[in-house]
Amino acid sequence: MNKHQVSQDHSSAWIAQTWISFIVSIAGTSLGIIYLPVDGWTKGFMGMGLAFTVGSTISLSKTQRDLHEAKKLTYKIEEARVEKLLAEHNNLS
Questions:
Q1: CB within 8 A of 46, min separation 6: which ones?
Q2: Domain count, the chain
Q3: 43: closest CA among 30, 57, 27, 25?
Q4: Count of CB atoms within 10 A of residue 12's CB?
Q5: Which listed residue, of 69, 80, 84, 91, carries a Cα 20 to 30 Å from 53's Cα?
Q6: How many CA atoms lie within 13 A of 4 on its CB side?
């Protein structure tokens, strides 16, 4: 069986801090919208704006991560090709 080894680039403290800051910022903004002294339509509009902002931010960060990982994979493939070429055409041996 193949075992997949997960490489974690970030510490557990950093991951916890990012989740906590995300939750606190969403909760704070939501409470601010709820207690804002305006009518329901305005609160609804602001709430939908918050929801779309969060969704688009998640999509953007996922897309950027995927692009970064694709570049890393492409670099590894190119590096392997160069190593193979050098091994095949080694004039010293």
A1: 33, 36
A2: 1
A3: 30
A4: 8
A5: 69
A6: 2
Q: What tens digit of pLDDT does each residue of 7-31 get?
A: 668 899 988 999 999 999 999 999 9
Q: What is the pTM of this model?
A: 0.64
- Amino acid, single-letter form, for residue 31: L
Residue 3 lies in a domain: no
Look at residues 34, 31, 55 and name the one whose alpha carbon lies nearest to residue 43.
34
Q: What pLDDT sits at residue 56?
A: 96
For residue 64, give its domain range: 15-88
In a domain, 93, yes or no: no
Residue 26 located in a structural domain: yes
In three-state secondary structure terms, 46 is: helix
Amino acid at 47: G
pLDDT given at position 31? 97
Mean pLDDT of the chain: 86
DSSP state of 6: P
